[in-house]
Amino acid sequence: QVQPVESGGGLVQAGGSLRLSCAFSGSSFISFSWHRQAPGKQREFVAAITRAGSTSYANSVKGRFTISRDNTKNVQYLQMNSLKPEDTAVYYCGCFLSSGTAYWGQGTQVTVSS
Predict the structure, then answer these.
(1) Terminal Cα-to-Cα distance of the chain (whole angstroms)
(2) Is residue 76 pLDDT above 80, yes or no?
(3) pLDDT digits (tens, 9 = 90+) for 54-75
(4) Among 110, 82, 78, which residue's Cα sits nearest to residue 10?
């Protein structure tokens, strides 16, 4: 297993959309997630998806964000719509083994201007 690599962050106006991607290697992961950390705040959960395809979301993003995964390409995605300034943060993808070991990417910056 190697460190996942995020991409797709950037600057967008409020109401806009971005799609984050996370490329990972290996086939042993049982679940995947996105977390984010805003300046001066703790890292928080955003969304997760299991290998079986079950998803969960933080209440703050439910209905606006969609997590998905492409098994053929070993990539997970976070589609973010109706972005708000409070969504501004560094977004991290995580990949989890059945042992509980987590592999985290280095993060991608998302900035939403008002």
Answers:
(1) 39
(2) yes
(3) 999 999 999 999 999 998 889 9
(4) 110
Q: Hey, what are 34's tokens?
A: 């996105």
Q: 31 to each of 2, 12, 27, 83, 108, how far by Cα in Å? A: 15, 29, 11, 25, 20
User: How far, in Å, are 12, 50, 79, 83, 87 from residue 94 at the CA level?
Assistant: 24, 12, 16, 21, 18
b (16+ CB within 10 A) / e for 58-90:
eeebeeebbbebeeeebbbbbebeebeeebbbb
- Give the pairing of strands 108-113 and 10-13: parallel
